[in-house]
Structure formats: C-alpha cells, structure tokens
Specification:
The complex is a heterodimer of chains A (142) and B (134). Chain A is mainly alpha-helical and 142 residues long. Chain A has 5 helices and 3 strands. Chain A has helices at residues 8-15, 71-78, 88-100, 107-113, 124-137, and strands at 34-37, 40-43, 57-58. The longest helix of chain A is centred in the last third of the chain and has 14 residues, at 124-137. Chain B is an alpha/beta fold. Chain B folds into 2 domains: 1-59 and 124-134, Uridine Diphospho-n-acetylenolpyruvylglucosamine Reductase, domain 2 (2-Layer Sandwich); 60-110, no CATH class. In chain B, 37% of the residues lie in helices and 11% in strands. Chain B contains 8 helices and 5 strands. A 3-stranded parallel sheet of chain B has the order 1-3-2, with helices on one face. Chain B has a two-stranded antiparallel ribbon with strand order 4-5. In chain B, helix 2 (38-43) links the parallel strand 2 (29-32) and strand 3 (51-54). The longest helix of chain B has 9 residues, at 12-20. Chain B is globular, with a radius of gyration of 17 Å. Classes of the chains: A mainly alpha (142), B alpha/beta (134). The A-B interface holds A 3-5, 7, 26-28, 31, 34, 40-43, 45-48, 50-51, 94, 97-98, 101, 103, 113-117 and B 1, 3-6, 8, 32, 35-36, 39-40, 42-44, 52, 54, 56, 79, 102-106, 108-109.
C-alpha cells in the first residue's frame, strides 16, 4: 500500500523500478516524466498514483518490440536527437503521441505540439527532424 | 507534501458531504479533479489539506453544441473541448485559447472546472511561508 502522496512518477520509478521515465522538475513543466495513460500523453508527476488505478499506462520501456526499437526510437538515433539524453524518454513518448494525434504535419506544427517537453541541451532541431521522419514513414506530413 | 487522507467517493453527493463536514475550516478538505493544478500546490505545500476528495469520474464531461449555444461540463478536459469540431468551427476563440494554454500533456489531464478554479499563479502568492505568518 503506497502513501497517498506518492505520484505516479515515483510509483513507477521508485516502486516498480521502471527507471526509463525521468524526474525533472516534478511540477509538470519539463515533460521528462511523460507516459501514455489510456493512450493519451500525460505528465506522470502530476498524477497521484492512487488516482491512476485501473488505467493502462505505457512507459518508454513498453514501446519497443523485443529487440526491435520503435521507429521513433530508431529515428532519434539516426538523427542524433539528443546530447545528455535525460529528456529523451519523455520526448519520445510525447513524440509517439504527437504523431498518433496527427500533429506532425510540418516542423512548425511539431514544435507547437511538442511544447510540453524541454531539452536543456537544445537538441530541438534534431528532435523535430526525427519526429517528422517517423511521421512521413507513416504517411503523414510533408 | 503535507500528509492527507485520500477519499474516492462514489457520487457527487458523497463528495459534497465530505467537504460540508469540514465546516468553516474549508482548507482542511480539498477537492482534486484532473489534478494538474492541485498536485503542484500540494508539492509546494501551498495547499496543506488533511483530506483530499477525488472527483475523478464524478463530473459530467459533455460538450453540448446545440442550437441554444454551447454548454461545457466541468469534467470535460481542455484537450477534448479544443478538439471538438463544432467548438473549433463555431467558437474558434475558445478552441484557440485552450490550444494556447499549458502543454498537450496538461490539456489531456486538466478539467475545465479545475481550470476556472485555478489558484492565483504568482510566485509571491504560491511560495509557502514567504509572506505568510505561519
């Protein structure tokens, strides 16, 4: 039984040892803790874990198929879309959702719809390119 | 974060009753809906309720776009309202205002009711203890 103060972020990282998602600000600003909850991207630091009971949660650990990377994970490597890598799991989860929502049409649109994820290394150009590459392969964007 | 007991009442009447029991010390019992504002306030000890009452699943979340006008229920999320095709076509200022707020992740979680009831977002207001006598 977890303390009711436990956030979903802490439940996943500290109790279930799913350390892919990262704790950045803890206040919903940076996006490093982004997960999919019932298929929608959310910031796990803004959820009390008790209130996420019964929901379907996908973390970065859940998007590859065995040893085969998710196309967006492969595109991040291809495009060198990170430096330190701390924001990357959150960027990729938000990017997966951004493409699934149909918001990856142009670079401008990607930037707009990726505004919830901060990269202090400033790898934005490459992140946008990786998302656009993946969206294009799925028949979206220009 | 100040310790609290979390309640997940089965209906709105039970949720209201939990708050009513607190009498005048209304800061001792607080509601949480989407949680995007409340969890931040709890994290920074701006709010220190002893009891937290969840409204998850209790608020209506319809978006009624009938001939009489637009009716948005408190439990609808910012993302749901912004993505509604009738809202986007006939009430573009609402859709645009929502899409210019927060981030896609927060809009997926935040309820309209909680959005309107947000606490003042000012560092000097939110910083616990800085200007308070406690």
């Amino acid at each position: 039984m977890l303390d009711p103060r436990t956030t979903l972020l802490d439940a996943l990282r500290e109790h279930l040892h799913l350390t892919g998602l990262k704790k950045g600000c803890g206040l919903g600003q940076c996006g490093a803790c982004t997960v999919l909850i019932d298929g929608k991207r959310m910031k796990s630091c803004l959820w009390l874990s008790a209130l996420a009971q019964g929901r379907d949660i996908t973390t970065i650990e859940g998007i590859a198929r065995g040893d085969e990377l998710h196309p967006l994970q492969a595109a991040f490597i291809e495009r060198d879309a990170f430096q330190c890598g701390y924001c990357t799991p959150g960027q990729i989860m938000a990017g997966v959702a951004c493409i699934a929502e149909g918001h990856a049409g142009s670079a401008h649109e990607v930037r707009d719809w990726m505004s919830g994820n901060i990269c202090r290394c400033g790898a934005y150009d490459h992140i946008v390119a990786a998302i656009q590459d993946t969206a294009r392969k799925q028949g979206q964007g220009s | 974060m100040h310790p609290f007991a979390l309640h997940q009442p089965r209906d709105i009447a039970a949720a209201i009753s939990l708050r009513a029991q607190s009498g005048r010390s209304d800061s001792a019992v607080e509601y949480i809906a989407g949680g995007t504002d409340m969890v931040q306030l709890l994290q920074e000890s701006v709010r220190r309720p002893d009891q937290l009452v969840s409204l998850a699943g209790l608020l209506d979340n319809r978006i009624d776009t009938g001939a009489k006008g637009l009716r948005l229920d408190a439990g609808a999320t910012m993302a749901e309202v912004a993505a509604n095709p009738v809202v986007a076509a006939d009430y573009p200022v609402i859709a645009q205002a929502l899409l210019n707020s927060a981030s896609p992740q927060v809009r997926n979680q935040a309820s309209l009711g909680g959005n309107l009831l947000q606490r003042t977002r000012r560092p000097y207001f939110s910083r616990h203890g800085l200007f308070s006598a406690q």
